[in-house]
Specification:
- The protein has 490 residues and is of the alpha/beta class.
- It has three domains: 88 residues, Udp-n-acetylmuramoylalanyl-d-glutamate--2,6- Diaminopimelate Ligase, Chain: A, domain 1 (3-Layer(aba) Sandwich); 233 residues, UDP-N-acetylmuramoyl-L-alanine:D-glutamate ligase; 152 residues, Mur ligase, C-terminal domain (Protein-Tyrosine Phosphatase, Chain A, Alpha-Beta Complex).
- Helices cover 34% and strands 22% of the residues.
- Helix 4 packs across helix 9 and helix 14 crosses helix 15.
- It starts with a helix and ends with a helix.
- One of its GO terms (molecular function) is UDP-N-acetylmuramoylalanyl-D-glutamate-2,6-diaminopimelate ligase activity.
- Keywords: ATP-binding, Cell cycle, Cell division, Cell shape, Cell wall biogenesis/degradation, Cytoplasm, Ligase, Magnesium, Nucleotide-binding, Peptidoglycan synthesis.
- InterPro entries: Folylpolyglutamate_synth_CS (IPR018109), Mur-like_cat_sf (IPR036565), Mur_ligase_C (IPR004101), Mur_ligase_C_dom_sf (IPR036615), Mur_ligase_cen (IPR013221), Mur_ligase_N (IPR000713), MurE/MurF_N (IPR035911), UDP-N-AcMur-Glu-dNH2Pim_ligase (IPR005761).
- Its cofactor is Mg(2+).
Length: 490
């Protein structure tokens, strides 16, 4: 693609001469290839403008900048734009031929429930016979093909390339987890969403967002942009009507809004909910009447996830028969209230819950379905929101009969320092806890403590198979460790 086409699309200010053929787009100076357009992104820890000279040495043909750089040769072409992240999203779309325009794109955002909801919706739509792509935390998928995922929502260049692959393979619908980071950093600025789904909003990512209001404002961006479409297709928003911030999302949407919920009156509602260790049942109340629903997932929080998926599916024209058929045998989502079964006389459940609300959801559910003791293993990540540590400690102390406070992903922090911040919360409500820095040992002691009728929850890491410790990625999988201990205990 000629640089002139990119410059015209971005309408930026040009410096330098020439119109080279651009061979690709790159924002990492270590990966620049000859002829690339190098995009200078300003990040939290580093600024791509500082690496422009290195990119020139490696053969970059032009630069996308927010300020003209004297460090580059005088004849080097620079395109100045107000925000290089927005520009990267736009040029990515241009490069790949606007693949989002060939797809029905459904974006799901919220603090908790995104992963489960996207997987449920994908399965339901496939039950109807559609080919569905998925973008998310655990993995990306094109139909049944799994592709690796490094972020909940990829950077715009990788995201657009993924959408292009999906379009090339005749994918009809894409269900996408949309994180607050992705929205604030304009990773999805080049993607037109047909549907926006809001699950819930509770405290998270306040290490990145300066305030809860900023976190909320980032989430609202998905809905504020829904009306700015070119596809000509009907757009709508699906919102959890029980969430305290539901009205904010309704006002932001500027498109038809459909609500789901349990407590408040909603378009799609669950009544007479019954939770058991083997699943949940409820009556689905919609305009057409009331219908019994049986799901293989456990907990009220999962009823909310199911309601979100059902609402979208109904609006997409999926038959209720296909919806109920899928939900009754819906497979477990990795690391989401996932049962580790080695024939023991007590359930061991691994869950990704790493926020106060997420932890309370799974522990309140676990308390409801167990007749014995609830034993919890959990920690908090390092270099992340410190404010939630004592809150999560208090929650575990409130619901658990015994808690093991341990290391999660400490990153660059001292694990014991993180655990002591958790302890300020848990010690205020109970003395029934133990501090064990080594996560494997904590899991082992929790399982050894358990007897018939008890329930063990291992929270925080879910599907992850690693620990991040002082710049190193160490193999660690809660499920693997639990299985090993259970086999020895038999």
């Amino acid at each position: 693609m000629l640089l002139s086409a990119i410059a015209e699309h971005l309408n930026g200010e040009l410096k330098g001469k020439g119109n080279p053929e651009i061979t690709g787009i790159c924002y990492d100076s270590r990966k620049v290839q000859p002829g690339n357009l190098f995009v200078c992104l300003a990040g939290v820890k580093s600024d791509g403008h500082d690496f422009a000279a290195k990119a020139q040495e490696q053969g970059a043909a032009a630069f996308l900048v927010m300020r003209f750089l004297d460090a580059l040769s005088e004849d080097m072409i620079q395109i100045r734009v107000p925000d290089t992240r927005v520009a990267l999203a736009k040029v990515s779309s241009l490069w790949y031929g606007f693949p989002d325009q060939k797809l029905q794109v459904i974006g799901i955002t919220g603090t908790n429930g995104k992963t489960t909801t996207t997987h449920l919706l994908k399965g339901i739509l496939e039950q109807e016979g559609k080919k569905v792509g998925l973008v998310g935390t655990i993995h990306n998928m094109i139909g049944k093909e799994m592709l690796p995922s490094t972020h909940t929502t990829p950077e715009s260049w990788e995201l657009t390339g993924l959408l292009d692959q999906m379009a090339a393979q005749e994918t009809e619908v894409v269900v996408m987890e949309v994180s607050s980071h992705a929205l604030k950093q304009h990773r999805v600025a080049g993607c037109e969403f047909d549907v926006g789904v809001f699950t819930n909003l509770t405290q998270d990512h306040l290490d990145y967002h300066p305030s809860f209001d900023d976190y909320l404002a980032s989430k609202l961006m998905l809905f504020q942009n829904l009306h700015q479409g070119k596809k000509g297709t009907a757009k709508y928003a699906v919102i959890n009507g029980d969430d305290p911030k539901a009205e904010d999302f309704k006002r932001a949407a500027q498109v038809p809004v459909w609500t789901y919920g349990i407590r408040e009156q909603a378009d799609v509602q669950a009544e007479d909910i019954k939770i058991s260790p083997r699943g949940s049942t409820f009556n689905l109340k919609v305009r057409q009447g009331a219908f019994p629903i049986k799901i293989s997932l456990v907990g009220t929080f999962n009823v909310y996830n199911v309601l979100a998926a059902i609402t979208v599916a109904l609006l997409e024209g999926v038959s209720l028969g296909h919806i109920t058929a899928y939900l009754e045998d819906a497979p477990q989502v990795a690391g989401r209230f996932e049962l580790v079964d080695e024939g023991q006389q007590f359930p061991v459940i691994v869950d990704y819950a790493h926020t106060p609300d997420g932890l309370e959801n799974i522990l309140s559910t676990a308390k409801e379905i167990t007749q014995g003791r609830l034993i919890t293993v959990f920690g908090c990540g390092g270099d992340r929101d410190r404010g939630k540590r004592p809150i999560m400690g208090e929650i575990s102390g409130k619901y658990s009969d015994f808690s093991f406070v341990t290391s999660d992903n400490p990153r660059t922090e001292d694990p014991m320092a993180i655990m002591k911040e958790i302890e300020t919360g848990i010690s205020a409500v109970t003395s029934r806890y133990k501090m064990i820095e080594d996560r494997g040992t904590a899991i082992k002691e929790a399982i050894q403590m358990a007897e018939a009728g008890d329930l063990v929850i291992i929270a925080g890491k879910g599907h992850e198979d690693y620990q991040l410790v002082q710049g190193k990625t160490l193999h660690f999988d809660d499920r693997e460790v639990a299985r090993e201990v259970l086999r020895l205990k038999r």
